[in-house]
Design goal:
Blueprint lengths: L1 H10 L1 H19 L17 H13 L5 E7 L6 H15 L4 E5 L5 E6 L4 E6 L8 H12 L9 E2 L13 E8 L1 H4 L4 H19 L3 E4 L1 H35 L2 H24 L11 H27 L2 H28 L7 H31 L14 H16 L1 H19 L17 H13 L3 E8 L11 H14 L10 H12 L12 H11 L12 H8 L7 E8 L3 H19 L6 E5 L1 H35 L2 H25 L5 H28 L7 H28 L7 H32 L7
Antiparallel strand pairs: 1-6, 1-7, 2-6, 3-4, 5-6, 8-9, 8-10
Helix pairs in contact: 1-11, 2-9, 2-12, 4-7, 8-9, 8-10, 8-24, 9-10, 9-12, 10-11, 10-12, 10-24, 11-12, 11-21, 11-23, 13-14, 13-24, 13-25, 14-22, 14-25, 16-20, 17-19, 21-22, 21-23, 22-23, 22-25, 23-24, 23-25, 24-25
Length: 785
């Protein structure tokens, strides 16, 4: 069948090439319209409880996590020049398109009791620009008499060492438009903010800290996007250089480059045709297409060169190449495609898209290789002796002779060494932790990481946690002070936790209002009594403006932390990047305390927010990847069973591919590398690629067996010598393609590079050494002649 296919492809070679180039042009046109996705909640399925709770919160209260924070650490803030510059920064930030509001010390307000009109009138505390230090000091005293802003906009850390000088910390919050920050304009918005911060830094000679979820997401997303561009180019360059060193042929190198380039174009075109956008996962597909497509080229070229040296007829060699390698390459690509396509069986949109696009385009690579390589080779002159010189590599011949010796004379040593390594790896597996952080991939000295830690140290964190208290009754929040007292008690418990900052809720607004009602007495900053509420009620009412929003500051604050029916209250908390392992423990602690304070018959407390959705999404992806690897291994097993129709061969084929995965997992455990989406992906990538080596070895073994009268030993010798060189070359090229990821600034991407390379090295050794030993050992009882 495949020999006929080879003749058919060569007979209509021009038609196939025209059709292929037309299809590539069509896919390229669509690829030019590819877009990036800025939606970070799609990792969770729509029926996930956390997803539903977060969507319900957004519907009720609007977006969260849309605040960028700017931190200043200095003892000169309350000097006139410095303070005026902070006020100027505030004004410049407000002018930026996409900035919705700015909260900073120069613009804070106090509430004044207008007893005649029964109103709480907001008045600015500071009146910059200042020329008088005395005036600034006076306003500062008034400001620091307001507990509402304490630990919210400023903090004075207490030193554990009497002689050390710890500078006070100040915070500026910049609200950004949710539509802008979730679009391609987000980079422009963040850069505009950073530009104004840089101007402030230069004027004041002060180091400024920047963080917040919009800033972190935008910065990391942009870095990953840029890295993937460079890694795609870098992997192509490395592959081209490596291929040229092996084949010593410009035409063969360019042909391979064309194959993978068309594969990349098709993958991007597929994303657009399926209505998807590039995500952090699908961004990995183009580099993966490059490193997976190269083996097709190497094995086709290797078989062509081998056949031409034996036959000395170009057309017959090409037909032999397709006849012998067509079925091999098909099943290799099927195995690799299965390794990724199983992600489409998960309930996560991110994983589904990744699985569909990767699976489709790995099979497309087979089609591209099959209808491009034979016609192009047919137009090129026959290979010269220098192009096939790699087949006589003396060093590799010595290596293969040693492999033969180990397989036939030292099988006990092979089994013993494999057993010891496997036991050590299994011990390492028990040390693996499954934990993800929002910034855990960044180097510890990266400014994004260090700035985040500064905010965690000084203000308790910047990652949003939202708590919704449902009284289950309309106006349930204001009928009595009981829910107010409960929310205040719960907020105090949260504030005492070292992993969280001081919470904000409508209760803080009531405290602020009570202090104002009692003429600014700081001791009155407390929850109102029943009698207080009766007197304060007229002050809390406010007629809406033309847009429907309350006019006064306290009413506006309370409105943003209660729903329109006054049934639900929102408690907003900033927390540290505690990670996916500690977050459930933290939430369980809060839930337990909430159950003690709030009667479950009258209240329902929900924990949600974009941070929870993000970390829950990471955990969901890890679980999905684990399940996908299991299903991939099962489906590949069925394919191998169908291909070889022998349980003995099936067992021999699975062990050399299972051991590399175990070894890699063990190394992760001993090296302290946690399971997260980027590192779990290693196993799927490595399984799909490593199984190629097994299939090519076993199919060649099966094809050669009848030629040697079913004598296993002679057939194994021929198979090792025949496929060994191409297997080693392919592994070296693939390692070169993946090793470039080790230059990444992100720990996960770096781990993906060297862990995949490690798996490929171990997979090559097990398939060239352990696999022949297994075949020979299990064939001893069979007839050899």
């Amino acid at each position: 069948m495949w020999y006929k296919a080879g003749k058919f492809i060569l007979q209509y070679r021009l038609s196939f090439l025209i059709l292929l180039f037309a299809a590539t042009a069509f896919m390229g046109w669509h690829a030019s319209k590819v877009q990036l996705s800025y939606d970070f909640t799609r990792a969770l399925p729509t029926d996930n409880p956390k997803y539903r709770e977060y969507q319900a919160f957004l519907k009720k209260f609007g977006a969260d996590g849309n605040t960028m924070v700017i931190g200043i650490e200095s003892d000169k803030v309350y000097t006139t020049g410095f303070f005026n510059e902070i006020g100027q920064l505030h004004q410049q930030l407000k002018k930026i398109s996409g900035v919705t509001d700015v909260l900073s010390i120069p613009e804070v307000v106090n509430l004044k009791n207008d007893s005649i009109n029964h109103k709480l009138v907001p008045e600015r505390i500071f009146h910059y620009p200042y020329t008088s230090q005395q005036a600034l000091d006076s306003d500062r005293i008034a400001f620091e008499n307001l507990p509402f802003y304490r630990h919210l906009l400023y903090n004075f850390p207490i030193s554990q060492f009497p002689n050390s000088k710890i500078l006070p910390a100040y915070l500026m919050a910049v609200g950004v438009n949710k539509d802008t920050i979730n679009s391609k304009s987000r980079t422009r918005l963040i850069n505009d903010i950073l530009a104004q911060v840089a101007v402030f830094e230069k004027k004041t000679a002060t180091n400024v800290y920047t963080s917040g979820l919009p800033f972190i997401r935008t910065t990391i997303g942009n870095r990953i996007k840029e890295e993937m561009k460079w890694f795609l180019v870098g992997s192509l360059v490395l592959l081209v250089v490596t291929l040229f060193l092996f084949f010593r042929s410009v035409s063969s190198t360019l042909m391979s480059l064309f194959v993978v380039s068309m594969g990349v174009i098709w993958s991007l075109g597929t994303i657009v045709l399926l209505g998807y956008k590039i995500t952090l996962l699908t961004a990995l597909i183009p580099p993966l297409v490059v490193v997976i497509g190269i083996p097709n080229c190497i094995y086709f070229l290797n078989k062509y060169h081998t056949a031409y040296r034996e036959i000395n007829d170009k057309e017959k060699a090409l037909i032999t190449m397709v006849g012998r390698m067509g079925i091999v390459t098909l099943f290799c690509n099927i195995a690799a495609a299965i390794g990724f396509a199983v992600f489409a069986l998960t309930h996560s949109d991110l994983l589904k898209e990744f699985g569909e696009v990767a699976g489709i385009n790995i099979m497309a690579l087979f089609v591209i290789s099959l209808i491009f390589i034979p016609p192009v080779l047919s137009y090129l002159p026959p290979p010269q002796s220098k192009h096939t010189r790699y087949l006589d590599n003396k060093f590799l011949e010595k290596v293969l002779l040693k492999i033969e010796r180990w397989a036939f004379h030292h099988s006990k040593w092979v089994y013993g060494f494999t057993t010891v390594i496997t036991i050590l790896a299994i011990a390492g597996i028990f040390r693996i932790k499954s934990e993800g952080f929002i910034v855990d991939d960044l180097p510890k000295k990266d400014k994004v990481y260090t700035d985040l830690k500064w905010f965690e140290q000084n203000f308790g964190g910047v990652l949003p946690l939202e708590i919704v208290v449902d009284t289950k009754k309309k106006n349930g929040l204001v009928r009595s002070v009981q829910p107010i007292a409960k929310i205040d008690e719960f907020s105090a418990y949260i504030a005492a936790n070292p992993a969280t900052a001081r919470p904000l809720s409508f209760v803080e607004g009531l405290k602020f209002a009570k202090q104002a009602y009692f003429d600014g007495d700081s001791l009155s900053y407390a929850i109102p009594y029943e009698a207080d509420m009766a007197f304060m009620a007229p002050y809390l009412r406010s007629k809406p403006d033309s847009s429907g929003a309350p006019k006064t500051g306290v009413a506006r604050l309370m409105n943003s932390f209660m729903d329109s029916t006054k049934q639900m209250a929102r408690i907003s908390v900033n927390m540290k990047d505690v990670g996916s392992a500690k977050l459930p423990l933290l939430l369980n602690d809060f839930q337990k305390k909430a159950d003690e304070i709030f009667d479950t018959a009258s209240y329902h407390v929900t924990f949600t927010g974009s941070s929870i959705s993000f970390l829950e999404g990471s955990s969901f992806i890890i679980r999905g990847l684990k399940e996908s690897i299991f299903w991939a291994f099962l489906l590949i097993t069925l394919c191998m069973l169908y291909l070889f129709r022998s349980f003995r061969i099936l067992l021999c084929s699975l062990i050399p591919n299972l051991i590399p995965l175990i070894v890699t997992a063990g190394v992760m455990g001993w090296a302290g590398i946690a399971l997260k989406p980027s590192t779990v992906l290693v196993f799927s990538v490595a399984l799909g690629i490593a199984i190629d080596v097994t299939i090519r070895f076993l199919i060649n073994y099966k094809q050669e067996l009848p030629h040697f009268n079913k004598q296993v030993s002679l057939t194994l010798v021929q198979t090792i010598r025949h496929t060994g060189i191409s297997i080693i070359y392919t592994s070296l090229v693939l390692i070169a393609g993946f090793i470039i990821f080790c230059w990444s600034d992100f720990g996960g991407t770096k781990a993906l590079g060297w862990l995949t390379s490690l798996t490929l090295i171990v997979g090559t050794l097990t398939n060239l050494i352990l696999l022949p030993v297994l075949i020979l050992s299990t064939s001893k009882k069979e007839k050899k002649a």
